[in-house]
Amino acid sequence: ALAVLDAIDSDGLLARAGDLHERLAVALVEQSSGVAEGVRGRGLLLAVALASPVAADLERAARAEGILVNAVAPNAIRFAPALTFTDEDIDVALAAWGRACATVSASLVAS
């Protein structure tokens, strides 16, 4: 257990999590096709507040796009990437998030 804490410290993972928080908090809303209203949380443990109760649909759409998120409430999605996520991983995840949100947004408009 101490070796893990040493690695987190020596690799600067906590500082990086803080830096990535801002990038993700902005991008998760900007790339949501209006599905998301905001983001709360700290570091890389984030909850995306949704404009309507579509969390279950968004979770399914995100999984279909290859990203693992959790519907933690009807209007909230947990987004918790690994501390070791690279910039490329973040780009891929955000692109998939955008596609999932666009799918859900289109279904809202169609209904």
Please provide a written account of the structure:
The chain has 111 residues and is an alpha+beta fold. 55% of the residues lie in helices and 19% in strands. It has helices spanning 2-10, 13-30, 55-64, 87-110; strands at residues 36-42, 45-50, 70-73, 76-79. The chain has a four-stranded antiparallel beta sheet with strand order 1-2-4-3, with helices on one face. Strand 3 (70-73) and strand 4 form a beta hairpin. Helix 3 (55-64) crosses helix 4. The longest helix has 24 residues, at 87-110.
SSE map:
Layout: H1 2-10, H2 13-30, E1 36-42, E2 45-50, H3 55-64, E3 70-73, E4 76-79, H4 87-110
Antiparallel strand pairs: 1-2, 2-4, 3-4
